[in-house]
Design brief:
117 residues; mainly beta; Rieske Iron-sulfur Protein; 3-stranded antiparallel β-sheet; 11 strands; globular
Length: 117
C-alpha cells in the first residue's frame, strides 16, 4: 500500500485559492498559493475555529475569514503577534494530482476523500 493517497486533481483547487476536503475523518483546507504548490491544513483556525478554506491566500499565508488573523501555510503557525497553531498534513503534487500522506489521516481510504462543493 502506498504511503500517499490521491485526493483530487490539482485543477480542482484554484491557483491563489483553496478548497475544503473531507478526508479520512478530517476536514482539510487544500490551499494553493501558486500554480504548482499546495498546502494542506486542518480547516479550523486556531483562534476561534474559522474555516481557513474560505480565507484570503497571499504568498505563503492565509488570512482567516472571521477575524483576519494569518496562518503560515508551511508550519501552521499563526503569524505574530497572534499565537496558536493549526495541524498540517503532508501533501505532494505529482502529474497534476494532489496526494496526502496516508498515515496522517484517521481513516485513510480513498473513498473517504471528497471535495466539498
Ligand atoms: S477565527 Fe480565525 S481569526 Fe478568529
Amino acid at each position: 500500500m502506498s504511503d500517499w493517497i490521491e485526493v483530487c486533481a490539482l485543477e480542482d483547487v484554484p491557483a491563489g485559492g483553496a478548497r475544503r476536503l473531507h478526508a479520512g475523518g478530517a476536514v482539510i483546507a487544500l490551499i494553493r498559493p501558486e500554480a504548482e504548490r499546495v498546502f494542506a491544513l486542518e480547516d479550523r483556525c486556531p483562534h476561534k475555529g474559522g474555516p481557513l478554506s474560505e480565507g484570503i491566500v497571499a504568498a505563503d499565508r492565509v488570512a482567516c475569514p472571521l477575524h483576519g488573523q494569518c496562518v503560515d501555510l508551511a508550519s501552521g503557525m499563526m503569524i505574530a503577534p497572534d499565537e496558536g497553531r493549526v495541524r498540517t498534513f503532508g501533501v505532494r503534487v505529482e502529474a497534476g494530482r494532489i496526494w496526502l500522506r496516508r498515515a496522517e489521516l484517521a481513516a485513510p481510504k480513498a473513498h473517504a476523500c471528497e471535495l466539498a462543493t
